Input
Amino acid sequence: MSTPQIRAILTDIEGTTSSISFVKDVLFPFARSRLAGFVAEHAADPEVADALAEARTLAERPDLDTEATIALLQGWIDEDRKAKPLKALQGMIWEDGYRSGVLKGDIYPDAIAGLEAWKAEGLALYVYSSGSVLAQKLIFGFTHAGDLTPLFSGYFDTAIGSKLEAASYTAIAGEIGIAPAEILFLSDNTKELDAARAAGMKTIGLDRGEAVIPPDQTHPLVTEFGAIDAKAGTVRNAG
Ligand SMILES: CSCCC(=O)C(=O)COP(=O)(O)O
Ligand SMILES: [Mg+2]
Output
């Protein structure tokens, strides 16, 4: 039986299309330092109030006041916790930064070139990140190379499920309307690649030199998008 051709690419962001250092050293400190001021200014906004309430529920600390909830969230930023209410708030705070021009989405040039080429070849492009859908649209919408959002057909965050669960990838394939075997998932995280493969997707890992790649991992690896034959879902010249 022949291997089905890839029809859609699903990509992670941090460590895949953008450096880990941009997220950890630029985006996270930006949100951390502005969190208290943002919450004070937007306390009446239902999305902000809901995120604070969800954080208290997740921490099983319904007793926390606003100040203590902010401290809790700052601790989660320091731990790089992929918690939905934190990710929602980070996206809202980053929006100010992107719209004012203080933040620019830092996307690897080879990722931009690869995504543009794959789109031109007729592949559909989707994003799946722990960052909120708003944060995803911002990082690709306000890049040094301009607005890249026209490249993408859709965005998924952890509202669809954890990136470490195969069921999330099955659900994404269902939403996209393309069989998992015809979707290529790209990530720097081996556990995410394992989950996507368990759901039937093709996988390629990005080794950008920042993430720790377990030596016993079993996914094809590349250091940049140019090494990927997207339609075949394989690494070029891999033998
Ligand atoms: C959407 S840009 C910020 C990314 C982010 O907050 C994050 O936690 C990165 O997670 P990813 O799933 O893209 O590795
Ligand atoms: Mg990642």
Summary: Strands lie at 8-11, 124-128, 152-156, 183-187, 202-206, 221-222, 228-229, 234-235.
